[in-house]
Amino acid sequence: MIGRRSLQTFFKAQLSAFLGGITDYLVMIACTESIGIHYTRSIAIGGIVGAAVNFSINRHWSFDAARQPVGWQLVRFIITVAGSILLKASLTFAVTEHLQVDYRLSRLCIELLVSIGFNFTLQKFWVFR
Fold it and tell me: Hey, which of 37, 48, 53, 106 would disulfide with 20, CB 3.0 to 4.6 Å?
């Protein structure tokens, strides 16, 4: 059975992921549509900016881990973000190019999968444990 505290942590982390994800997505759109950067590179740029937002919120609020030293948390978070960006960029590219789906829509679908299946799991059990 899932405890109340675990559910609360999950929902806080999802709100943090949403805020980081909105930041990430808007930066990706701005880089691609306004500056003309290829969407796979824009995903990386947006991912870095969104990750900074997400790390700050998760460390101080979602996982209440601000009392722990930031060093190893940050190293583990950077590794997690690198994997997340790689997954999002490659899967978005695959869906966009092979299924002929607009990159903005395929990115939203991929974001949902990666956010819950990869990011939350690693952040809860590895980064902010």
Answer: 53
